[in-house]
Amino acid sequence: MTRVDVALFQIGYGDDESLADRVGRVCEWIREVERPDLIVLPELWAHGGFASSSWTSTAELLDGATVAQLSSVARKMHTWIHAGSIIEKADEGSARGPEDRGLWNTSVLLSPEGHVHTTYRKIHRFGFGEGEPRLLEAGHELALTDLDWGTESTRAGLATCYDLRFPEMFRKLGERGAELVLLPAAWPMPRVEHWQLLGRARALENQCWMLQCNTAGTHSGLEMGGHSQIVAPTGEVIAELGCDEGVLTAQLDLDMVQRVRADFPVLDDRRL
């Protein structure tokens, strides 16, 4: 039986903390916890989920300071770290995307050796013409990878925040073998019930684990929703946080995915 310990860091922040100070604070916070097998951070926790006016000036390369510091932590703790997402900028001379913006909302998964293992550029940009759609390129590729736990491994899919509203994306991840979905977010308080409901729905309809890590605090005039949650393949929330900054920990029985799919093989009856 494969059981792994996970920790979701629901980071709270405001507008008075610099990017460098926040990254330093969070790295120190991670070092203080008992080592889990997997750590997940929220979407744009360093660059500000709604701080679009500063994204161009604070954007980083994938080997920039934020990822480099978290890579060091992953290596020293020898644990998987999903670093949440950063505002990634194109390296000089590299492709800038079809809209010539050269900026992406990019999730970064770090291996226990501290290497950039997998990246995912957010496909669905939130903002209805403002914010992300106006400033950032859209990703166009699904991201899946195997998380190795020694003698066992788990197929994981990556998604980000607003992606949660598009069930076809999660169905495609499931079709490609995802048993676990890592979903960082900067989801606001006014729609936090949607966050909770949609996470349970995505887990239940695809019979997979959902690890949803949100932000807390208030920045750019918006209160973040918190309520990070871990949802089992049955749709049951096995662990959740409230509104404030905190760490959500749980032990996952990863074999549950196969048991649930065998006991209730609804996915075999799909016709469309």
From TrEMBL:
On the tree of life, the source organism's domain of life is Bacteria
Q: Which InterPro entries match?
A: C-N_Hydrolase (IPR003010), C-N_Hydrolase_sf (IPR036526), UPF0012_CS (IPR001110)
GO function terms (MF aspect): hydrolase activity
The name of this protein is Carbon-nitrogen family hydrolase
Q: Which UniProt keywords apply?
A: Hydrolase
Q: Which PROSITE patterns match?
A: CN_HYDROLASE, UPF0012
UniProt lists the family membership as follows: Belongs to the carbon-nitrogen hydrolase superfamily. NIT1/NIT2 family.
According to the entry, every stretch annotated as the CN hydrolase domain falls at: 4-254
Name its species: Leekyejoonella antrihumi
Q: Answer whether the UniProt record assigns the keyword Hydrolase to this protein.
A: yes
